[in-house]
Amino acid sequence: MRDEWDEAEGTNAPPLRRVLLYSDHPATRDAVITGVGRRAAKDLPPIEWVQVATRAAVVTAVEAGDLDLLVLDGEAGAAGGIGVCRQLKDEIFRCPPVLVLLGRREDRWLAASADPDAVVAAPLDPLELADTVARLLRVTA
């Protein structure tokens, strides 16, 4: 029996979806990766997590291309994910979808000014996080 990915790629190896995860807090990165896992949904290919901890690393990675989704921590220290999102949306042609992680639900209004494609607020619910990541990855398919 052939794997569903055989026909799409001509190999048994499923294609990867590259997701950039920006946070200067290792615990936040761990919570996101653990919550979403290696695959956001059964119908999606595995995720390759690209972890970065600085705004400069985010910009460099996005400019290099080949990313399917950006997950930005709104609570990151020197450059929060909301500001980084606004910068990317203004400066990057065909910016990948952006998910901003918020420290509080009450900050949704503030995040809206950066035009993210989605927001998830703390405490991070693994189901909500995985569903949101899956929805955004389906848009880029």
Task: State the gist of this model.
The protein is of the alpha/beta class and 141 residues long. Helices cover 40% and strands 18% of the residues.
Describe this structure as you would to a colleague.
The chain has 141 residues and is an alpha/beta fold. The protein has six helices and five strands, in the order αβαβαβαβαβα. The chain has a five-stranded parallel β-sheet, sandwiched between helices. Strand 4, helix 5 and strand 5 (118-121) form a beta-alpha-beta unit. Helix 2 packs across helix 6 (126-139). The longest helix has 14 residues, at 126-139. The radius of gyration is 15 Å and the shape is globular. It starts with a helix and ends with a helix.
Keywords:
disordered N terminus, 141 residues, 6 helices, single chain, 40% helix, alpha/beta, 5-stranded parallel sheet
What best-fitting shape do the alpha-carbon axes yield?
A: globular
- Share in helix: 40-55%
Number of strands: 5
SS content category: alpha/beta
Task: Count every helix, treating DSSP H or I runs of 4 or more residues as helices.
Answer: 6
Q: What is the ordering of alpha helices and beta strands?
A: HEHEHEHEHEH
**Order of adjacent strands in the largest pleated sheet:** 2-1-3-4-5
User: What distance separates the N and C termini?
Assistant: 25 Å
Q: Kindly estimate the percentage of residues that lie in beta strands according to DSSP.
A: 15-25%
Largest sheet: 5 strands, parallel
- The Cα radius of gyration reads 15 Å
Average per-residue pLDDT, rounded, comes to 91
The unreliable regions are 1-9
